[in-house]
Amino acid sequence: MMQKREGFTEEKLYVLPDYWMKELEQEALTSELYVTDIGYFPNAEYHFRERPEGAPAHIFIFCESGEGWVELRSGERMTVREGELVIIPPDTPHRYGAAAGNPWSIYWFHFKGNHAARLVSLFGLSAGPLALSPSGIARFTEWFQPAYELLAERTYSLTSHVHVAQTTRQLLSGIGLNTSKSAQEKKREHYLEQAIKYMNQHMEESIRLTDLARHVGLSQQHLIHLFNLETGVPPIGYFLRLKIQRAGQLLDLTELSIKEVSSAVGISDPYYFSRLFKKMSGFSPSRYRSIPKG
Questions:
Q1: How far is CA 260 from CA 22, 267, 284, in A?
Q2: CATH 3.40.1350.10 at 12-178, yes or no
Q3: What is the average per-residue pLDDT within 261-285?
Q4: H-helix or E-strand spanning residue 58
């Protein structure tokens, strides 16, 4: 079969010069995330690329139309369809190409930096092909053209690289927040929303873990695992954070005394409330109230 790495009609292609790579690695505003290569291959018939040793950067591929495939570490072939993206991790042997008979048109870019792997992991962007919503596709294509033009036409400009770096971070996190969720993820999100809604409805009370778990329909152990996974703290710890957040709003927006604020968030002992508020906010309630806001 005929294979092509690049060289497609009306393609776009930019590769960061080596001297700029070193500059961006050392610059504080780009060292955490920056784009090294970017391009667009329309109707990329016979497109094929293989890297037995992997690439030094993450590779982002978005299939605008048609179909293609990706293989990692000589493993199972993943089909990438119209409206889907895939991110290939760095230093990972891989190959990819256009489907025969229905070749893909792809937008792609390579990105590096100290925060690159963490962003991909945190926002769940490494779990194989991900489908973008219509609004997500629109946001991506709106990002691509100005990013490409800034890099290709103003390579010499550090401010251009910084701007693209910042918008790329926003792009990746936005995609992570809005990509189609699996049924399991949607179920977790539903349980979490139900639990937090219950907390907000009982802000003026104390709640027990057993009651919260029963209301949501999970075991206590499963509920604790869910909160640790999604929020980083167990359910009761999260409830206390909501109370302190609400207390801060009352201190800012009302003339209630500290004792009344404490009572309003379901903490009967104002001394315990003051200690907890300072532990979580860094300020005593009276000091917090005195700080100008806005």
A1: 58, 10, 15
A2: no
A3: 95
A4: strand 58-65
Predicted local confidence at residue 2, as pLDDT: 47
Max Cα-Cα span within the chain: 78
Residue 84 burial by Cβ neighbours in a 10 Å radius (0-12, 13-18, 19+): buried
CB 57 within 8 A of CB 111: yes
Tell me the CATH number for domain 183-290: 1.10.10.60
Where do you find CATH 2.60.120.280 in the chain?
12-178
What token pair was written down for 256? 């209630």
**Cα separation, 168 vs 161, whole angstroms:** 10
What mean pLDDT do residues 78-101 have? Answer: 95
- Give every CB contact of residue 258 below 8 A, 6+ residues apart in sequence: 251, 270, 273, 274, 285, 286
Q: Where in the chain is the domain with CATH 1.10.10.60?
A: 183-290
131: alpha, beta or left? (left if phi > 0; alpha if psi -120 to 50): beta
For position 185, what pLDDT does the model report?
A: 75
Q: What confidence category does residue 150 fall into, taking pLDDT thresholds of 50, 70 and 90?
A: very high
- What tokens were used for 65? 């139309």
DSSP three-state, residue 110 = strand
pLDDT at res. 239 = 96
- CA dihedral in degrees (237, 241, 246, 249; nearest 10)? 170
Which band of pLDDT confidence, cut at 50, 70 and 90, is reported for residue 96? very high
Average pLDDT, the chain: 91
Q: What is the mean pLDDT of residues 238-250?
A: 94
